Amino acid sequence: MIRRLSLLALALALLCRVPAIGEEAEALRVSYLGPAGTYTEEAAQYWFQTDATLIPRDTVGDALEDLLEGRAERAVIPQENTLGGAVVNYVDALIAAEAAYVVGEVVLPISQTLMGVPGATLADIQTVCSHAQGLTQSAAWRAEHLPNAGTEEMPSTAAAASHVAERQDKTIAAVAAPGAAALYGLEVLAENVQITDTNKTRFYVLSRAPAAGEGLTRAVLMATCGADRIDDVIIALHDAGLEMVCLHDRPEGSRLGSYHYVIEVENGAGISDAQLEAVQSMEDVRFAGCFDAVEK
């Protein structure tokens, strides 16, 4: 059941409200999937502009732990990519973080770049390393241009660039954000290896309290139920005037056919309490935040 805000939660929301882009605010501590040079860092920079101290973390779990234990006021994590789909372990982390609320969303265009140590050429490359999403997004390009190269998965695209820089091995290349090349002293071997110019990733901005204010256009709901019941939730949301943006499912873990669902909905005119309360009577549905989305 959707949890209504108590007076205390509302007070916390007012204190922790995320400002719109360009709005003056005190600097916040923001944990994100690092190291420096990741797309997640770019998303955090775009959302917070200069109003935050960014803290790179090795994993999404570490960033969420910083948030939930009070070492950061916000966390920024990836959720979904045009080509690679939902980042399932990050979706799992969001589902498990019941005390975290989505208070913002950034959609970034993703332009993957192949980079290697100075002097390396495509003919030298025997191994390509990147985050799983980077490897997926560049698979078609690599099949054509580096058909014999193996792959190595890394915690992030920036970690892949850092690894190549540390190894100083001409046979290893990284698929990473274009800015990582200069950051880690690498040379660009090929640009736009993601095969499509429509490649984008959705990032969530998280807080320990829901965002306050009226007129927010999107919301995230979590539902835990059998697959035979999810249509009831979808119909209730539709009847309330909420349009589906995305739906991710992950195994609930106790029985076959039971899932955790992450449901993002929108109403361009602003989501009302009445619309959210339309599904309040349904069991095992919880509110996970209202917010606005921005696209770079």
Brief summary:
The protein is of the alpha/beta class and 296 residues long. It folds into two domains: 7-109 and 200-291, 3-Layer(aba) Sandwich (D-Maltodextrin-Binding Protein, domain 2), CATH 3.40.190; 113-190, D-Maltodextrin-Binding Protein, domain 2, CATH 3.40.190. It contains ten helices and 16 strands.
End-to-end Cα distance, whole Å, is 34 Å
> CATH topology of the largest domain, what is it called?
D-Maltodextrin-Binding Protein, domain 2
Number of helices: 10
Q: Could you tell me the mean pLDDT?
A: 88
Largest sheet: 7 strands, mixed
Shape type: globular
Total number of strands: 16
**CATH superfamily heading of the largest domain:** Periplasmic binding protein-like II
Strand content: 25-35%
The CATH class assignment of the largest domain is: Alpha Beta
Low-confidence stretches: 1-25
Number of domains: 2
How would you describe this protein?
The chain is built from ten helices and 16 strands. By secondary structure, it is α/β, with parallel strands linked by helices. The chain folds into two domains: 7-109 and 200-291, Periplasmic binding protein-like II (D-Maltodextrin-Binding Protein, domain 2); 113-190, 3-Layer(aba) Sandwich (D-Maltodextrin-Binding Protein, domain 2). β13 and β14 (258-266) form a beta hairpin. Mean pLDDT is 88; it is low at 1-25.
Topology:
Blueprint: H1 7-16, E1 28-33, H2 39-48, E2 52-57, H3 60-68, E3 74-81, E4 85-86, H4 88-96, E5 101-109, E6 113-116, E7 127-130, H5 132-137, H6 139-145, E8 150-153, H7 157-167, E9 172-176, H8 179-183, E10 187-190, E11 200-207, E12 218-226, H9 230-239, E13 243-251, E14 258-266, H10 273-277, E15 285-291, E16 293-295
Parallel strand pairs: 1-2, 1-3, 5-16, 7-8, 7-9
Antiparallel strand pairs: 3-4, 3-11, 5-11, 6-9, 6-10, 12-14, 12-15, 13-14
